[in-house]
Design brief:
Helices cover 18% and strands 43% of the residues. The protein has 306 residues and is of the alpha+beta class. The protein has two domains: 149 residues, Pnp Oxidase, Chain A (Roll), CATH 2.30.110; 136 residues, Electron Transport, Fmn-binding Protein, Chain A (Pnp Oxidase, Chain A). The structure holds flavin mononucleotide (FMN). Flavin mononucleotide binds next to strand 11, strand 13 and helix 5.
Length: 306
C-alpha cells in the first residue's frame, strides 16, 4: 500500500491517456482571447497544425497575440492556458485560418510542487527513451496542454491507383462550423504525395473498443497497405468517393483536400467536408493529457479509460 502512496513521487504520469467518450467531446471548452479582450469559443475550431515548431491553427483570427484557455465544462475550472503569437493567416474559400506559435503555457491539473516534479520525471523518461523525440521538452508539455481538449482518434483511408493506405490520426479537427476540417500529417508519412494528388480521404471515427487495432495500424504511417482484405476488420466503401472505410466506424466523414502546406515537421491539409454519416452510437477513442486524467481521478470523475 505504501507503494501506491509513493508512486506519484517516483513515476511520471503518462503523457497521453486513451479515453472512451462520445464525440464531439463535451468535457472541456476552449476559448481564444484576443488582445482587445474579446473571447470566442474555439472548442470545435482549433487544432494542432504541426509539432515542430508546435503550431496551433484556428478558424478565427484573434490578432497578433492571443490566449487559449481550457476550462472544465461542468465546473468552469481553468485547467490550462497557452499564450500564442500569430505567425501567419490565410483565407481559404472565404474562411480565415490563423496559425499561432506557442510562446508559453501552463496547466493547473497538478498542484505545486508536483507539477514541476512530474514534468521533470517526464523529461527524464524522454531523455532515456531509445526513440528520440521530435519535439523539445517545453513543446511536449505545451502539446499536453493542447490535449486538455480530448482529441478524437480516426483512421484515415487513402485510395488511388497503385496506392492504398489506412492509418490513425488525432491531429485533426474542424476549424469552423461551415465545414473546414484539417489534418496535420508528418511529412515522412508514405501517403502524403498521393494525398496531395488525389485530394480525397475518408475518416472513420473509431470505437474505443478497437484501440489495439488502431494502434497497430500506426505502422502504415511508414508503409502503404497492400491489400484491403488483409485488414483485421471489414471495410466498406465511403458514400461519395467509394474509399474503403471501417464498417464498424461510429461515423465516416469524406474530405476533399483544398490546400496543403508544409509547416516544419508536418504537412497541414485544409479540407472541406463532403459527407458525414453517423453509423453507430458509442464511445469513441480519444487522447487526453495524462495530467488531465489524473486531475479528474482526484476529483472523483475520471473519464472512462479506453
Ligand atoms: C492513435 C494514433 C494517432 C496518431 N496521429 C497522428 C497524426 O495525427 N499525425 C501524424 O503525423 N502521425 C500520427 N500518428 C503517428 C505516430 O505518431 C508516428 O508518427 C508514426 O507511428 C510513425 O512514427 P515514426 O515516423 O517516428 O516512425 C498517430 C499514431 C497513433 C497510434
Amino acid at each position: 500500500m505504501w507503494k501506491d502512496w509513493l508512486r506519484p513521487f517516483v513515476r511520471a504520469l503518462p503523457q497521453w491517456s486513451p479515453v472512451a467518450i462520445p464525440s464531439p467531446q463535451q468535457v472541456v471548452a476552449a476559448s481564444l482571447r484576443s488582445d482587445d479582450g474579446k473571447s470566442r469559443d474555439v472548442t470545435a475550431a482549433h487544432t494542432v497544425a504541426s509539432l515542430k515548431p508546435l503550431t496551433i491553427a484556428t478558424g478565427f483570427d484573434a490578432g497578433q497575440r492571443a490566449v487559449l484557455e481550457y476550462r472544465d465544462n461542468a465546473t468552469g475550472t481553468l485547467l490550462g492556458v497557452l499564450r500564442l503569437v500569430r505567425t501567419d493567416s490565410v483565407v481559404t474559400g472565404g474562411t480565415p485560418v490563423a496559425f499561432y506559435r506557442i510562446a508559453a503555457g501552463e496547466h493547473h491539473c497538478l498542484g505545486w510542487p508536483r507539477r514541476s516534479w512530474n514534468a521533470w520525471l517526464q523529461n527524464r523518461a524522454m531523455r532515456r527513451s531509445p526513440h528520440p523525440s521530435l519535439m523539445d521538452f517545453d513543446a511536449v508539455q505545451q502539446l499536453m496542454i493542447a490535449y486538455l481538449c480530448p482529441r478524437p482518434v480516426v483512421l484515415v483511408s487513402v485510395a488511388a491507383p497503385g496506392h492504398s493506405n489506412i492509418f490513425p490520426m488525432d491531429l485533426i479537427g474542424p476549424l469552423e462550423q461551415g465545414g473546414l476540417f484539417s489534418l496535420a500529417l508528418r511529412s515522412t508519412n508514405v501517403s502524403v504525395p498521393v494525398m496531395r494528388t488525389v485530394r480525397q480521404v475518408a475518416l472513420s471515427g473509431m470505437p474505443a473498443t478497437m484501440k489495439a487495432i488502431v494502434y497497430k495500424l500506426a505502422e502504415h504511417h511508414r508503409q502503404p497497405l497492400h491489400d484491403w482484405a488483409a485488414l483485421p476488420f471489414p471495410a466498406r466503401p465511403s458514400q461519395t468517393f467509394g474509399i474503403p472505410a471501417v464498417a464498424a466506424a461510429l461515423r465516416v466523414r469524406e474530405l476533399t483536400i483544398v490546400d496543403s502546406r508544409e509547416i516544419g515537421s508536418h504537412v497541414f491539409f485544409l479540407c472541406r467536408v463532403v459527407s458525414e454519416q453517423d453509423l453507430a452510437e458509442g464511445p469513441q477513442l480519444h487522447h487526453t493529457a495524462g495530467f488531465h486524467q489524473a486531475f479528474r481521478r482526484r476529483q472523483g470523475m475520471p473519464l472512462a479509460d479506453a
